[in-house]
Input
Amino acid sequence: MHNITVLSGGMGGARFLQGLLHAIATGRLPGVAADAAVTVVANTADDLWIHGLKVCPDLDTVMYTLGDGIDPGRGWGRRDETWSVKEELATYGVEPTWFGLGDRDIATHLVRTQMLDAGYPLSQVTEALCKRWLAPTLGQGVRLLPMTDDRVETHIAITDPEAPSGRRVVHFQEYWVRLRAEVPAETVVVVGLDDSTPGPGVLDAITDADLVLLPPSNPVVSVGTILGVPGVREALAATKAPVVGLSPIVGGTHVRGMAEQMLTSIGVEVSASGVALHYGARSNGGVLDGWLLDTVDAAEVDRVTAAGIACVAVPLMMTDVDATAAMAAAAVELARA
Ligand code: FO1
Output
């Protein structure tokens, strides 16, 4: 196996990628060359315009994580960050104040916004930013591709007793950051997704892959949105590569984030096997050949296997790079089986 493609969201996907790259560099992946090329197709539906800047949380989280610029505690934004601009904006009474833009992070958004304004597509902006952030890692051939260059945004309909209709639609970031996903998500709408075009290189990255991995990112608003880009599902059905996913649900809930709320809002059972069946077996119109679930969910292996998806139970807690590298190795072993 030489070309590995990963469909990734933000934090969960980024942490998995760290383990995957470590496993490749240390030769722990059976049948995977040390110079294996990793292509990340990242979700862009979390993106938002704020204070006149285009912020791309999942692209930036992957980029900062692989470039060792991420703040390890928060899992987003820059390490050694300062917040002077945020404080000044709040002093001016400028809203929203609930979304934290650090001073170092703002430089990324300024470069991105300037390039977008000059007419560069998001894919070329990302390539330019990655010249700084993925250059050292480029020795491992990592490419970061936005799932589309078109504007798509996840919006959430929530119940709001004060609203005339009894409900209100908020941007995903407001739902997650301001509301902490503490109100029920009635509907998830990804504005612009149905009309979006796969970004340059995205479909080829899937059809030319030797292995496609679905990391433990949010199956609705991260991996789900990538699968919703017209053409992506067809590419997954057509690729000769095995498609293997790792469960973001362990012991009936998400490890971090809001996958539980998102799965509930689309009526999918919040379990490791529930997510596998939601993605579906490739032999049955879905996208999966294989599925990894955590050992605590080992009782669900048979249910997944019965759906036509090869399944193993392995430790899935990404506690450190070694644990995550072992997960990547288990995914490769399942793919080869
Ligand atoms: N998450 C928060 O919980 N609070 C924030 O203020 C916040 C700001 C922020 C700024 C830039 C960025 O790239 C990410 C940011 N995030 C913040 C995380 C973001 O909501 C998540 O990375 C994803 O969008 C959800 O997975």
